[in-house]
Amino acid sequence: MSHTVLVTGGAGYIGSHACLELLRAGRDVVVIDNLSNASRVSLDRVRELAGCELVFHEADIRDRGALDGIFAAQRIDAVIHFAGLKAVGESVEQPLAYYDNNVAGTVTLLSAMRAAGVRDLVFSSSCTVYGDPAQVPVREDFPRSATNPYGRSKLIIEDMLFDLAASPLEEPWRVVLLRYFNPVGADASGRIGEDPAGIPNNLMPFVMQVAVGRRERVRVFGDDYPTPDGTGVRDYIHVTDLAVGHLAALDALAKTRGCVAVNLGTGRGYSVLDMIAAARRATGHPIPHEIVARRPGDIAATYADPAFAAEYLDWRAARDLDVMVRDHWRWQSANPTGYADASSDSRTVPR
Ligand code: NAD
Ligand code: UFG
Fold first, then answer.
1. Which residues of 4-24 are buried (b: 16+ CB within 10 A; e: fewer)?
2. 150 classed as catalytic
C-alpha cells in the first residue's frame, strides 16, 4: 500500500476532494499546485475537515528544480497527477498553452519521478478520449479520438504512458489511467467544492449559479439530439465517489503491470432536463431554462460501462443523482461566490 502520495493539482476541484479522502484513509499527502485555477483556501478546508496536516508546495509541474526538491525532501511512494488545464474552448484558442501545460508538464513530472525512482502513477484522463462513441455504454477498449487540443493533450499523455510502461529499457512503471465521466457534487460538508473562474462552461455549476441567483436562466444546448428528451445525456458522477476511486486505483497499483485504463462513471446517463429537474427538487428554486442551439463539438450521449472498474479496482459509484445535486447545492448555497470571500487561514492542525 502506498503511504505518502504526491498530488499534483491537489488544490483544484477533484484534487481537493481526493486529498481529503486520502487523509481520511490515513495516507500522507504532499500537494504541488501553481494555483492557476485554484485557491489555497481549498487546502485549508481540507486540513480542517480531515483534522490533520498536508504539505503544500506552491509550484509548477513544469519546474523541474521544484519537483526535484520535493522528491528529495521526503519519500514519495506514488503520484496522483491531476494538474492540467481543462477548458475545451480555451484549448481551441490557445493550443500551445495546453500542450505546454498538460503534455510538457507531464513529461517534466515523469522525468523527475524517474530520477527519484518513483514509478507508481495514477493519471487523470477523461471520457473525452472516446470522442463521439459509436455505441454506449463505453468500454475501455473502444477506439479513441480527439476533436480539440484539450482532448488531444489527454490522448498524447495516455500514449506517452503506454509507451513508457512498455519500454524494455525502463524499470517497470505501474500506471492506472482513470477516464472520468462528468464529476459533479461536493464533499457532504459543503466546505469544499467546484469554484469555476468566470462563466461556468459545465452544466452543473451553471445550474447552481442560476439557483443561487447569480445568473438568470440555464441555456440548454439543443433539444433535437437522438436521446429520450432530445437533450444531451451524460454520466454524472459524485466527486467523492471519484475521489474514492483514486484510493482504489492506488491499491490496484500493486497488481498493475504496465499501464491500465479504467473508466470512472456510474453507468447511468441523465439528460440536461433530468439535471435541471433534480436541481429544482434539491434547491426548491424554479431554475428557469431556455432551449438554444446545439453547442459546437457536443455529442448526443455518453455513459460508462463501469464493469471493468468494479472488477479491477473493486470500486463502484455509491451516490445517486439526488445526493450529487444536494451536495453540490450545499456547497454553492453556503459559498455563493466560491472561495472568493474566504480568507486563507494558514493555521495548521497537527496530525
Ligand atoms: P481544476 O482546474 O479544478 O484542477 C486542476 C489543478 O491543477 C488546479 O488547482 C490548477 O491550479 C492546477 N494546475 C494546472 N496547471 C498546473 C501546473 N502547470 N502546475 C501545477 N499545478 C497546475 O480541474 P479539475 O476539474 O479538478 O480536474 C483535475 C484533472 O481531471 C485535470 O487533469 C482534468 O483535465 C481532469 N478531468 C476533469 C474533468 C472535469 O470535468 N472536471 C473531467 C475529466 C478529466
Ligand atoms: N449543457 C447545457 N448548457 C450549459 C452547459 C452544458 O445544455 O450551460 C449541456 C451540454 O450540451 C451537454 C451537457 O450539458 O449535453 C454536459 O455539458 P458539460 O459542459 O457539463 O460537460 P461535457 O460532457 O460537455 O464535457 C465535460 C468537459 C470535457 C470532459 C467531459 C467528461 O468539458 O472536457 O466533461 O469529463 F471531457
1. ebbbbbbbbbbbbbbbbbbbb
2. yes
Residue whose grid cell is 454553492? 332
Measured in angstroms, how far is the CA atom of residue 221 from the centroid of ligand 2? 9
**What is the C-alpha to C-alpha distance for residues 35 and 10, in angstroms, rounded to an integer?**
9
Helix residue spans in the chain (DSSP H) = 13-24, 41-50, 64-73, 88-93, 95-98, 105-116, 149-166, 203-211, 239-252, 272-283, 307-308, 321-334
Considering every ligand atom shown, identify the ligand nearest to the alpha carbon of residue 16 and give its number.
1
DSSP string covering 180-202, please?
Answer: E-EEE---TTSSS----SSS--S
In 10 A of CB 299, how many CB atoms?
A: 16
Amino acid at 281: R
The strand pairing partners of 290, in sequence order, are: 219
| Catalytic site residue from 98, 130, 150, 236 | 150
C-alpha cell at 159: 500514449
Tens-level pLDDT at each residue, the chain (351 residues): 559 999 999 999 999 999 999 999 999 999 999 999 999 999 999 999 999 999 999 999 999 999 999 999 999 999 999 999 999 999 999 999 999 999 999 999 999 999 999 999 999 999 999 999 999 999 999 999 998 999 999 999 999 999 999 999 999 999 999 999 999 999 999 999 999 988 999 999 999 999 999 999 999 999 999 999 999 999 999 999 999 999 999 999 999 999 999 999 999 999 999 999 999 999 999 999 999 999 999 999 999 999 999 999 999 999 999 999 999 999 999 999 999 877 654 333 332
User: What residues flank ligand 1, with Cβ below 6 Å?
Assistant: 9, 11-15, 32-38, 60-62, 82-86, 101, 105, 124, 126, 180, 182-183
- Predicted TM-score (pTM) above 0.70: yes
Contact of 52 with 36, CB cutoff 8 Å: no
**Alpha carbon distance 68, 50 (integer Å):** 28
Q: Which residues does ligand 2 sit against, CB inside 6 Å?
A: 88, 126-128, 150, 180-182, 201-203, 206, 218-221, 232, 234, 272, 295, 298
Q: Cell digits for 8?
A: 499534483
